[in-house]
Amino acid sequence: MEKLVVNNLSKFIQGKIILQDIDLCFESNKIYGLIGNNGAGKTTFFRTITGLTSYSGVITVYDGQEHFSKLNYILKHVGIVIPFPEEYDSFSVNEVFEEHLFYMGVNENVDLIELLNYVDLNISLKTKISKLSLGMKQKLNIAIALSHRPDILLLDEPFNGLDRTGISKLKSIIKEFRKSNKVVIISSHSFRELDDIIDSVVVLDNGKVMSTDDISSFPSKNIGNIEEYFEIVKMGGHNG
Q: How many domains does the chain have?
């Protein structure tokens, strides 16, 4: 069942193509890998979905029998993991949660300690962001992204700063989140971390979709892993 649909999505900055004519459909209960070289447009793609940058085209979120394309609705149904801006360094963990939940229009109480425990982050809510390591910030980002109970989870380089235990825990969280008609889209340079978790792959290059495929089809095409698939696409040998 469709959960997120992108039609004719384009983004230009001073005449330069960042994203061009992207048409993608993301289905419920699936984990997608969004891959490509630096500058391919992966982060910009995430930013358009969350309204952090302007764009042309239509982004639609489906909720049961209804569909919505208004930004304020989409925002409340999407959780995104991106690096903290520098101005957050002076904020406490609690203040970051409060700002996020207010922005998302969440009125009910959220058990923040339970969320931190869920991502294996043992810190006080009074802890300043500046005191956290890269891995701890990444875990906090994940907790924040989950705090308003979204239906779609966008993870931009989520494995950065995590040790093996942290990576294993994140994969467990991702797999758990996928259930109940939800969608996960992961952008990562570490293809080997995607091999055992994603269901489908999308290759971006210079702002365009070069190929899409289900991982389950790899064996029949004699493709061993995502790295091999990516190399084949770059050489023009596969287009989905």
A: 2
Confidence band of 65 (pLDDT split at 50, 70, 90) = low
Domain extent for 187? 2-77+150-234
pLDDT tens-digit map of 128-147 = 999 999 999 999 999 999 99
Do 15 and 50 have their domain in common?
A: yes
Residue 239 belongs to a domain: no
Q: What is the pLDDT of residue 2?
A: 73
Torsion of CA 122, 126, 130, 133, to 10 degrees: 0
Residues 163 and 46 in one domain: yes
Between residues 33 and 50, the one the model is more confident about: 33
**Those residues with Cβ within 8 angstroms of residue 61's Cβ, 6 or more apart along the chain or in another chain:** 3, 4, 67, 68, 69, 73, 74, 77, 78, 151, 152
